[in-house]
Amino acid sequence: MILFTSDLDRTLIYSNTMMETYPIAGDVIPVEHKEEKIVSYMSRDSIDLLKQFSKDHLFVPVTTRAVYEYERIHALSKDINPKYAITSNGGTILIDGKPDLEWSKIVRNRLAEQSQPKEEMIRVFAKIRHESWVLREFYIEDLFYMFRVDRKLVPRGELAAFQKELAPMGWSIFLHGRKLYVLPTSLNKAYAVQYLQNFVDYDLHVAAGDSMMDYDMIIDADYGYSQLHGELYEKQPDDEKVIWLNGMGATSTEELLRNILELNLVR
Q1: Residue pair 60/51 in contact by the 8 Å Cβ criterion
Q2: 2-107+187-266: which CATH architecture?
Q3: Pairing relation of β-strands 84-87 and 92-95?
Q4: Predicted pLDDT at 146
Q5: For residue 124, what is the DSSP state?
Q6: Which residues have CB under 8 Å from 39's CB, separation 6+?
Q7: In whole angstroms, how far apart are CA 166 and each of 123, 191, 193, 222, 265?
Q8: For residues 150 and 178, what is the distance between their CA atoms, to the nearest angstrom?
Q9: Which of left, alpha, beta for 249 (phi over 0: left; psi -120 to 50: alpha)?
């Protein structure tokens, strides 16, 4: 059996902007609604391939989204309804839709032991934070921060200095599009996947993602995939540890899922 751990946004599901940027020939299906507005899509072929895969193998969504944001993606959380899901950048593991309390306890203990309190991080961030580029603030499930930013106005030099000051404090940053994530270093998708691997049966681990926050999970897998449209390719295009997909947007997702199904045939 194949264990497939995959990021969601820009790896399996796409915003309207991404769909317009990388149009596909086949049908496009809404997979997520927010206040009756469609906010993300998949190609029909991607949905069909993922359903086909999930009949015989183990698909585990792995996302930085909070639990409620993951549950909003009805095509995954309800239609495919995977037994396991990892949310909050590895902070929460859902089993049959309910948080694994043992993992939650491990995460909280690690954060307390390995990272300085969030108030210290905020104090340091205040040195460079300004309303001109930090537009909104979100504290996700008492685990990490996500700031909505004006990417054009982000002071890159000051942000790099901020990252260096954070490192010994046990915090790290990721600028992903219009979102600036500030997370405890021990909050990592790969750690949650490693925990999950201890009590699931599988023969082969395949992982996929488009951002630097997916990198550790990707290189830990037997086969780790990423897309040319992603941040990971933008920053590390020559990384030989990653299998780069040829397609862009939803086309790359179809390519990814077909590749995984073919891996099963050649084993």
Answers
A1: no
A2: 3-Layer(aba) Sandwich (3.40)
A3: antiparallel
A4: 95
A5: H
A6: 15, 16, 32, 33
A7: 11, 20, 25, 32, 46
A8: 6
A9: left
Domain ranges of the chain: 2-107+187-266, 116-184
**How far is it, in rounded angstroms, from Cα 266 to Cα 45?**
22
In CATH, the number for domain 116-184 is 3.30.1360
- 43-101 pLDDT, tens per residue? 999 999 999 999 999 999 999 999 999 999 998 888 899 999 999 999 999 999 999 99
pTM value?
0.94
Give the chain's length: 267
- DSSP letter assigned to residue 203: S
b/e per residue 2-30 (b: at least 16 CB within 10 A)? bbbbbbbbbbbbbeeebbeebebeeebee
Q: Which two tokens stand for residue 184?
A: 């405890």
Crossing angle of helices 156-166 and 118-125, in 10° steps, is 150
Amino acid at position 188, single letter: N
Cα 107 to its chain centre, rounded Å, is 17
